[in-house]
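Before the break, one more example. Copy the sequence into your notebook; we will annotate it together after we see the structure.
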Amino acid sequence: MDERDIYRAKEATKAAMQSAMKKVPLRIVIIIGAILVFFLLLNPWVQIGAGQRGVVLNFGAVQENVFGEGLHFRIPIMQQVIPMDVKVQKSLTSAAASSSDLQEVSSEVALNYHIVQDKANIVYQSIGIHFKERIIDPAVQEVVKAVTAKYSAEELITKRPAVSEAMRANLAERLMTHNIAVDAFSIVGFSFSKIFMEAIESKQTAEQLALKAKRDLDRIRIEAEQKITAAKAEAESLRLQRANISPDLIELRKIEANLKAIDKWNGILPQVTGGGTVPFIGVGDIQKR
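Here is what the structure looks like once it is written out:
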């Protein structure tokens, strides 16, 4: 078969297809196109964003399968997909409670939580999308009141880490029953009545004054001990000096004094003397030696 035969065959095939298309009624093409447009208008595709899960409803009934992130096909009219946020979320709640010593305590707590991902359909079925107002806030209020009542007002301040951990553990146990996981819990702040705060300030002032008085007493005691020690040392030194004094030592000191006086004499005799004789310093003492 040469090139001319191949060309004739292609032209014949093309002519046959054009003839077949002309035989198809235009009405059928329009109907098929309309069906496709209508199907697209029913939005058969659903997109689940990052950090979300899709809860599938068949005529309003929650299904077991949960759509993950990405693009998914749904049956129009029959199926509806509800997106549920499963990212970590923050809740800031204020709670009023009473301590074990009946002091009024206002607490502000921060909670980080998220929905258990594969249980998003159960959360939607049992709670809905307003789970924070229905479950989390009341649970925080109850836990704060229960834990605060176990500690005195002073212990709430001095034992804050233990109080925070007790609240976190209690809250995590309560929320997990509703398929909500606790990621982090912290006490932002405690506030007490004005009378209690004034009492705390007075106590701190008294403790500081008492500590200062104790330091002053310790300083005075140490200074007194130092003076006593110095006096004892001086007395002991005098005692040793007296014990070492003897007649020979006294004579030796006299001779040393006379020798020093002779060393200082310039050799000139005094012109007038009381007894008319020339004095010789220490001669008698030297002769005695």
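The domain at 89-192 is CATH 3.30.479.30 (Tetrahydropterin Synthase; Chain A). Residues 168 and 185 are 6 Å apart (CA to CA). Try to locate both features in your own notes.
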